[in-house]
């Protein structure tokens, strides 16, 4: 399966990767529309984070476990847990169950996710170029958001919003390619940089 190089789905069962990538990508785009100051925070973002980015992505990770894919399991279950924890972080102060996290603590939370994502990015080095784009851009996103909190610089959140939309759309693109490739049996769009032909001297 050249379209999924390095993350090949070897099971006869359904491939949960497109589901997990769509859950991650669509939720990331929606939240970063808010970070880019294009839409206000609202119930649609929180519901998306709770159900599609959170629970559904977590389920995709469980299915990857059943398929024996350690990387896919770790990625989808972890980022599913991230979205669930983010929604809980926003709701706990509203429910009076915990005080709101100060900027330094929230920044540390985001930077820890940046560290985790940097480790996951190393794991994509043998995968397709698009896998590398998704995880590298996500690492940058977490660093920008964490720095914005710690330094209390709203402009960094704005920059992160646009960078995060790029990250989310790249995940949606990869999900679409994997889904459609699985249907037709071959890549329908590129996920790797074109390789230059090697000239062999006569």
Report on this structure:
With 202 residues, the protein is an all-alpha fold. Helix content is 71%, strand content 0%. The protein has 6 helices and no strands. It has helices at residues 17-35, 43-66, 70-95, 103-122, 129-151, 154-184. The protein starts with 16 loop residues before the first helix and ends in an 18-residue tail after the last helix.
Summarize the entry for a quick read:
With 202 residues, the protein is mainly alpha-helical. It has helices spanning 17-35, 43-66, 70-95, 103-122, 129-151, 154-184.
Mean pLDDT rating: 88
Give the ordered list of helices and strands.
HHHHHH
Q: Which ranges are low-confidence, i.e. pLDDT below 50, for 5 or more consecutive residues?
A: 1-8, 194-202
Q: Give the overall shape.
A: globular
Q: Considering DSSP H and I runs of 4 or more, what fraction of the residues is helical?
A: over 70%
Largest sheet: none
Give Rg in angstroms: 18 Å
How far do the termini sit from each other? 32 Å
Report the structural category: mainly alpha
What fraction of the residues are assigned to beta strands by DSSP? under 5%
Strand segment count: 0
Helices, by number, come to: 6
Question: Key features?
Answer:
202 residues; globular; 6 helices; disordered N terminus; 71% helix; mainly alpha
